[in-house]
Amino acid sequence: MPKLAVLDIGTNSIHMVLAEVQPDYSYKILDRFKDMTRLGDGVFTSRRLSDQAMMRGLEVIRTLVNLARNKGYEQIEAVATSAVREARNGGEFLDHVAQQTGLVVRVITGAEEARLIFLGVQNSVALPEKPTLVIDIGGGSVEVIVGDRETVFQARSLKLGAIRLKDLYLTKTPPSKGMLRELEEAVTAQLKTGLGPYKTKRVEQIIATSGMAGNLAEVIHLQRTGRPLPQLNLAHVTEKEIAAMEKRLAGATLKTRLAIPGLDPKRVDTLLPATIVFRILLELLEKSELTICDKAIREGIIYDFIQRHHESIKAERDIPDVRKRNILALAHRCHVSETHALHVAGLALQLFDQTKPLHGFGPREREWLEFSAILHDIGYLINSRQHHKHAYYLIKNSDLSGFTAEEIELVANIARYHRRSVPSRKHDEFDALPGSSQQVINVLSALLRIADGLDRSQFSVVQQVEVKLGKPVVIAVQASGDAELELWAARGRSDLFEKVFKRPVEFVTANQDDNGT
């Protein structure tokens, strides 16, 4: 099943999840990694990522990418959010990431970030029929999304992230009353604008995602019960508890805050602004409770990947062999007639199996023949004239995962010689190959030429072949109708077979004797 690594380069933290998509289009998280890199520290006042932050970020990304690849995760979906999006040197940072890891990071808009967050929640929580508001407080931005089980009604990205608010308003700890008042006014104004028509009781519930919400819930639960929170997902905290925690954080020094049970030391300066945002949101919507969801943007990216790759996941489920799956995918991309391609492959394999005493090849060569037969007509994508040569070019230059360069060269050559001229030392690509590879191409393309001829009409008239290995080699065909066109085409394609095996070929229908034509 598909293995997917999701790398979330956030303002506050860099996360990676390693997931495996299941046959039923669900997924299983196999591992999670997180580093609170604080990439966005200072970026919202200077509009630049600091050199130190970029070095920290690059080191973490390099480590996580290497870890994913060492575990066999070739597919890595990487996104960056507000800090990189808003920094003047964000592009420079992503260039360094690409140079050092080969990873192309997608910088997503606030609207796309909101959509992905809601997608993660929507597929993880049983939402009520009435609208739900989801809030995700990151380091740089706050995503506010209103939707139900089926639809997103509104998605807004607000510049109220915890690091941003800390940098802009809370310049000392504990903050002054003036700082807190200015912060509260800014948060209230933006939330009122962002909520739009959802300022009343039209919203059934409020769900909070992200590490800020999770850590706040952990601290409050410890304070409430004296025990660690047993499960983060669907935990509840009240507006009164949030307001009390806000008051406690606002009046505390850094040292006092660090002594609060459960508080993440790396959030010692950002949990207060996040708490203020939660409290004001609840007040504006006249709600008394916040529900926590432990799924957000990373899970949304996984669901989005599943939706976008539905067909390829189905193919992987139905065709577990990665090599054959990639061959069929290439044929599909090139708009090959699947019926003809698979029928020719089937006839070619019948010929291969029944002529084994002549060629002596095994399973590896049999597979190459099958793959070449499936791809022999992909050159039509470029032009019908000389489509056999175009087939060679397309196969040679396609990204066929699971194949060595030598195998791709063999498959490309076998497909190239399915018609017209036979393999020749006059052809540079063929002449450059070692003698053993040339022999494989000669034999397998000889079989493919005949198999292709036997489906000349592309109506699968010839169903089965029976080969009698004598001098001549007699190929008896079992047909569902008039097969004269197929027999004529196969005779015209038997030249290479006769040259390779040094014996003539005769074609008969199954109800004829061996001397019939």
From TrEMBL:
Keyword Zinc assigned: no
EC id: 3.6.1.11
Enzyme class: hydrolase
UniProt domain Ppx/GppA phosphatase N-terminal: residue ranges: 27-309
Residue span(s) of domain Ppx/GppA phosphatase C-terminal: 322-467
Record flagged with keyword Hydrolase: yes
Protein name, entry field: Exopolyphosphatase
Source species: Nitrospira defluvii
